[in-house]
Design goal:
By secondary structure, the chain is α/β, with parallel strands linked by helices. It is 38% helix and 13% strand. The chain has a 5-stranded mixed sheet, sandwiched between helices. Helix 4 packs across helix 5 and helix 8 packs across helix 9. The longest helix has 20 residues. It is globular and about 55 Å long.
Amino acid sequence: MGIAIVTAFFDIGRAEWGNRPNTPQWLARSTEDYFSCFERMCRLENELIVFTEPKFVQRIMDLRAKLGFAAQTKVVCKPDLFEEQGEAFRKIDAVMKKPGFLAGVTQPHCPEYWEPRYVLINYLKSVFACEAIDAGLATSALVAWLDFAYCRDDNVLPRTLKWDYPFSDKIHLFNIEQPDSQSLVSIIKTNKVYFTGCAIVAPQNQWRELKQLMQSAFNMLLSYDLMDDDQTLLLMSYRNAPQLFETHFIEAAKSGWFVLFKHYNSFERH
């Protein structure tokens, strides 16, 4: 059966980010950019659960149906995500507007410092995964979160277009830096990344543990008038309960971030 994949796409206006003062053009990404990546993911035989807004539901189903994977696909429509998650959204927005929030920030053009919708959706990764599990949409024992644009090019895909791997009963994170004792304030201000947020794998029951850890990390940051995206929340979760995790180091300079289907795949021959 393989690993069930959970992902999400909501249009937060990223196509226009390049028009924002002091924001580099490379941060902008259109809906078509996202879907060109997602179309590659659609070629996988795995279960696929997608959270999205009404205008994308049919497009997603059509992409999978034409490849013969309609039965392995579930689309969850969230027409009012930012109202549904209004309390968390307002808290993120309020922190970002605090005087001094950007003090000491070395990369203020990055969206985790100015776009609350971006931060919220990244925070919700474990929430989406748990909703898919609780609703019975993900039937595989292992469930992975993968970003909607994870498949940046054809080389990311496995040759077999199948993905399965005997991951242990831990929460699996993929790191480009070894966790250390650097302070959270320093990490947030310098935008240092330890764990990639684009991929997380865990057994179904462990996703609930991760959701609780990320909620606790989120609330802790709020209490100090700080905020960051899922990469820092994952680091905090790992620091708070390292026994629940298994980490996998990625040599990003050599192979990039997007290596799961090649390096962790029982169907691939190395």
